[in-house]
Amino acid sequence: MDLALEIARTLLPLAIVGGIAVFVIKRMERKYKKGSLGKKKSKGAQNLLDSLIPLGMLSGCVVGILLSIFSPISLLSAITLGAGIGFLFGYFAYEIYSKKE
Description:
The chain has helices at residues 2-34, 43-70, 75-99. The chain is an all-alpha fold.
């Protein structure tokens, strides 16, 4: 029973992040096929728009590391969940910023 719980504790963050990644990639693929990806007029604004998802992942990793320092969550699980949740938040920021004129 202890082994099954440890395996579940290890694989659950990976399954959650995998689901988030599939969701975001499929949404971006659908937007690409429709031709409705975010476009900005200035080069700086377009660079920011293109960088929102990776910046979300980096900030999620930092939050995950800080969370693992101050709580009993393992470092690997915290980084995995942080990057996945940051990926999702970066996508939401991309969606919001691409709609602003």
